[in-house]
Amino acid sequence: MASAACLTMVQEVCAEQSLPIPTTLFGVIDSQPLQLRALLNLEISTLRKWPDIYWTKLKKEWTFTTLAADVQPSNALPPAADFDHFIDNTMWDRTLVRPVVGPISPQLWEAWKARPVLTSVVYGFILRGNDFLTAPNPPAGDSVYYEYISQYCVYSLGTATTPDQQTFQDDTDTCIFPTTVVQQGLRWRFLRAKGLSYAQEYAEWINMVQIEASRNGGMPMLSMAGSYNEWLAGPFVPQFNFPGP
User: Fold this and answer.
1) Which one, of 120, 128, 73, 121, lies nearest residue 104 by Cα?
2) Distance, CA of 231 to CA of 91 (rounded, Å)
3) Mean pLDDT by 10-residue block, N- to C-terminus, for the chain (245 residues)?
4) How far is the C-alpha of 90 from the C-alpha of 63, rounded, in Å?
5) DSSP code, position 165
6) Is residue 235 part of a domain?
7) Is residue 65 part of a domain?
8) Are 78 and 144 in contact (CB under 8 A)?
9) Shared-domain flag, residues 72 and 192
């Protein structure tokens, strides 16, 4: 469920604080609406990068077709404006049904490339500049899939079906985060910007964000009996101690 429109969120906070209620946040020169807009965008940017949580609506899947070369095609990565970072250990070559290891370190990459012959049942990847590189070279035409975190957390004009902007750019824009959390963030940020006490509002905001993060997307069941290979849906051969007791 999307938030309220950005203008609506600001107007409600202004009403609570007995501040002049703006009629728009864009195309104005008045310093207060400009400040409120900047603080609102700072709030959603902070929430988007909240540590140790993958917000469900920021998760996306990407795919590309491999080349039998070090440098993979330019579409191996999502558009730069959208891509924030990989979700670790999600990259798989679905043609070979094998994981793609990485990102590997520059030291390991150079060690691999220094070998006269480099063979492996799996291959790894590294990012360098704008290039997505793999070693050993994969077969041409394989389908690689992975998940990543998007930078887009705003629904343009409040009508987009998926987030398509990083920041609010129109009064009617909405975002993926709950209205109450965004408004609470705006409250303490505004008080801090004015040099006023904001400790209570900040503490309440932290609690609200932690609750939302804990409920986001649900949580997996953890086994107290030890780990197992959850990547394989059927019978599989253990990596170690086989055969054995």
Assistant:
1) 128
2) 12
3) 89 93 92 95 95 89 95 93 93 93 90 80 90 92 96 92 94 95 96 95 96 82 64 53 54
4) 11
5) B
6) no
7) yes
8) no
9) no
Res 194: pLDDT = 93
Three-state secondary structure call for residue 188: helix
Beta strands in the chain (DSSP E): 59-65, 83-86, 92-93, 98-99, 124-128, 131-135, 143-150, 154-155, 174-175
Q: What is the span of the domain harbouring residue 86?
A: 56-149
Residues present in the chain in total: 245
Residue 30 and residue 157: Cα distance in Å, rounded?
Answer: 23
Whole-angstrom distance, CA of residue 184 vs CA of residue 174: 16
Q: Is residue 234 included in any domain, yes or no? A: no
The contacts of residue 67 (CB under 8 Å, 6+ apart) are: 73, 138, 140
Decide if 238 is inside a domain. no
Distance of CA 51 to the CA centre of its chain: 10
Domain identity same for 23 and 137: no
Choose among 202, 167, 200, 207: nearest CA to 186.
202
User: What total of structural domains would you count in the chain?
Assistant: 2
β-pairing, 59-65 vs 143-150, is antiparallel
**Euclidean distance between CA atoms 189 and 40, whole angstroms:** 9
Q: pTM to 2 decimals?
A: 0.83
